[in-house]
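I had to read the description of the data format several times before I understood it. The format is easy to grasp once an entry is in front of the reader. For illustration, here is how one protein appears when written out as sequence plus structure tokens:
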Amino acid sequence: MIRRARRLPTARQLQLEGVLLAGGLRALLLQLADPAVGHGVARHSAFETDPLARLRGTLAFVYVVAAGEEDLVHRVARTVGRAHRPVVSDAEAPVAYDARDPALQFWVAATIHDTAVRIAEAVWGPLPGALADELLALDGRLATVLGLPVAEWPSTRAEFDARFLAASASLRFDEATVPVVRALVAARATPRWIRLLMPAYLRATLGTLPALRPQLDALAGGPDLLPLARRLAPATRFLPRSLRTLPARRVLAAARASA
């Protein structure tokens, strides 16, 4: 019997696949669980009052770095850099942080990359080595355009996995970050349909965060939806690519228009 070869997107196409948005909550929870990131968000972000503005800003940055013209990439990176400049802890802060810290730039980009790989493999199956290597290099720009030295982004998947595992060892939520997570899950300043979907979204995410699950279980309630999400994920690859990339194209168009 002749087996059909899988039709895989290229690495650049993968970066624009809308299904990767399904991992947004996982990446954000991993970011907030880094004490320095979590405390910086708790102290400086309007996350609770306008979460969609943060989401739009993050998506614009990710998609512009992935597929925008170089002048637009640098313009958006400068905007992010200006926003990060005042995000610095004071001397009395229980956790020191600086949004321009290369370690934090690495961690934020690493959570996006690790999550993207997980979602891509749930949809298309294990990625060939060359494709996974190229995606790793491309996703590294999310950190390097903000100032992370290129040499500090892992050059191999084994190096990335080792650094990701090492950084994960210190993840936790504390008295400053738990309220941020609760506000994220409550999604009060969002349309009603988002608030209704958020508990199920969280229940489909928790299984990918075993180290954080004990602290998050109380917020989720209900059955574990990760097995269902994994069964449904492969079906998304049969959608027209024009539909699968619609979020990316709309965000890119808005970024180009505003520039």
Notes: DSSP finds 15 helices and no strands in the chain. The chain has one domain: 11-258. The mean pLDDT is 94. The radius of gyration is 18 Å.
